[in-house]
């Protein structure tokens, strides 16, 4: 059997339609040029922009393409916006490192998570009581545990306090509804390669002009209506659009299939290892994500052993320069360090099938037994 790739929350393999779109656009002209070749490139970008705008329910000019989610986060997490100024930044306890670093706000504060990995509303209300015009950064779904955050409920409280909500919708895109109408957020950002599009492209999406940052993060020749300088990545944007079109066409059926596959793997894992701890089991989760620990078996060792057996899984976020380090997400959930060190993540995607789901538990059982014997 081919290798089992169960790390789609890190990156999902390129969908065939996205690959075709990228190849077709590699020789495209510069989208800022006014000749025919430039206009053809511009059309690819504007078609992609309109596709995203229609899905999220905004005008096309409120969609800004970036080099990915990290740049998008740095773009939107700014104190000075066109229509207001935010004085401090509140950061959900499970946020991705690209969100959690502060971004130039005078004051930042972490909002705790509960034991199931969802935002702690008691802590949120307390911190809002000491905030003026706050910005809350809250992901739609966690990249490590798959736990879906109550963004709409949090947004209602933040808006009462005169604040703004920025939602990292990277893991939610194509898996659960993350449009403005569902989240109540003011700003969203997404990434192409999590849904089977090319790496190196993402988007910041604004609900209205007032919440666009007053100054561009990347300055240059005025591309993206002055919101993001630099020659546009025509091939990347075209591939992103192709992947997203496929997601829109297949999304519901694909997620139903992956939820069933995830649930089967979870049941098999907990049957062969009764000591297994599933993180976020009491909360709504992404249909493709399973985070669990086998106490006593270090994640770093288990990930390496499974890799040798032909299985690619993760110990959490892939955005730490290849390091296996302590999970800030699990720490915020109150998970003891000795359990957090054993945390694994399976994240499924469009190519995964039932045969792979059947094969994985027996491989895990074999590796687990070998590690226990050595111990």
Automatic annotation (TrEMBL):
Keyword presence, Lyase: no
State the source organism's domain of life. Answer: Bacteria
Cofactor(s) recorded for this entry are:
pyridoxal 5'-phosphate
Alphabetical list of SUPFAM superfamilies matching this protein: PLP-dependent transferases
Name a GO molecular-function annotation.
metal ion binding
Q: Is Thylakoid given among the entry's keywords? A: no
Reactions that this protein is recorded to catalyse? (sulfur carrier)-H + L-cysteine = (sulfur carrier)-SH + L-alanine
Where is the Aminotransferase class V domain positioned along the sequence?
A: 5-356
Entry keywords, A to Z: Iron, Iron-sulfur, Metal-binding, Pyridoxal phosphate, Transferase
Q: According to its UniProt entry, what is the function of this protein?
A: Catalyzes the removal of elemental sulfur atoms from cysteine to produce alanine. Seems to participate in the biosynthesis of the nitrogenase metalloclusters by providing the inorganic sulfur required for the Fe-S core formation.
Q: Which family does it belong to?
A: Belongs to the class-V pyridoxal-phosphate-dependent aminotransferase family. NifS/IscS subfamily.
Q: What is this protein called?
A: Cysteine desulfurase
Name the species this protein comes from: Rhodoblastus sphagnicola
Lineage of this protein's species?
Answer: Bacteria, Pseudomonadati, Pseudomonadota, Alphaproteobacteria, Hyphomicrobiales
